[in-house]
Amino acid sequence: MKIKSSVPEGQSGVWKVEKFEISKEDARSYNLRNQIQLFQGRPYRPVEPGIFTRLMRNGTVVMSDTPAETEDLDWFAQNVIGNVLINGLGLGIAAEIALSKPLVSNVTVVEISEDVINLVGVPLSRKCPKDKSLVVILGDAFKWKPPKGVKYNTVWHDIWDNICSDNLVEMSKLRRKYCKRAQWQGFWAYYDHLRIKGIGW
Q1: What confidence tens digit (pLDDT) does each residue in 40-74 have?
Q2: Sheet strands side by side (includes 152-157)
Q3: Are the beta carbons of 105 and 29 closer than 8 angstroms?
Q4: Whole-angstrom Cα distance, residue 3 to residue 198?
Q5: 146 DSSP 8-state letter
Q6: Helices (H), the chain
Q7: Helix (H, G, I), strand (E, B) or coil at 108
Q8: Over the stretch 138-196, which tens digit does the pLDDT of each residue have?
Q9: I need a labelling partner for 176 at 20 to 30 A (CA). Which of 19, 113, 158, 183 fits?
Q10: In the sheet that 50-57 helps form, which strands lie side by side, from edge to edge?
Q11: Measured between alpha carbons, how far is 196 from 201 in angstroms, rounded to an integer?
Q12: Integer Cα distance of 187 and 46 in angstroms
């Protein structure tokens, strides 16, 4: 399934949403380098030519809607139901997927940057279906506390800029935090993190 962001271009503070193009030559060169990294224990995440959207902070790409980054959301899309919590707004793709599912009723997103909320959360809120609820909260995923007694059918964590084995420590913290509050939890690039760590699949 191809997943694309519908968020418009814009800028708020040091954050920016913009369109960009990957040419056939750019894709070929990137994928060749990526294959070499595969032999060095890095994950293989190919890209394809096309027009895409990226979220940038101080001129550095934090995320994009290229298949190399969004492929893990297939996993999320197959499991998301009911009351949903998403840690990390990004380009809002996970939230859009959740809101498109008939078995999803409520979506809560915790995002640490007010600028990202301005750029992404506000446009998403305007498009939220009338039969669903979308709440975007300004907060830190590690410090924010869900309302007392509230449980989630689906929790998705995507707060990391890069794939790094050090992120596994934070993943473990979040998993423990929601182990009694979530029926299902998922993490962006989780299996790639394990591969880098040498744990295997």
Answers
A1: 555 667 788 999 999 999 999 999 999 888 888 98
A2: 133-138, 104-111, 82-87, 152-157, 182-187
A3: no
A4: 29
A5: P
A6: 24-39, 67-70, 73-79, 93-100, 114-116, 122-127, 167-178, 190-197
A7: strand
A8: 999 999 999 999 999 999 999 999 888 889 999 999 999 999 999 999 999 887 656 55
A9: 113
A10: 10-12, 15-22, 50-57, 60-64
A11: 11
A12: 19
Residue whose token pair is 């294959």: 35
Which residues lie across from 82 on neighbouring strands? 104
How many Cβ atoms from other residues are within 10 Å of residue 4's Cβ? 15
Give the global pTM: 0.88
Q: Which domains does the chain have, with CATH numbers?
A: 10-69 (no CATH), 70-197 (3.40.50.150)
Q: For residue 165, what are its two tokens?
A: 């084995």
Residues, the chain = 201
Q: Report the C-alpha gap between 187 and 154 in whole angstroms.
A: 11
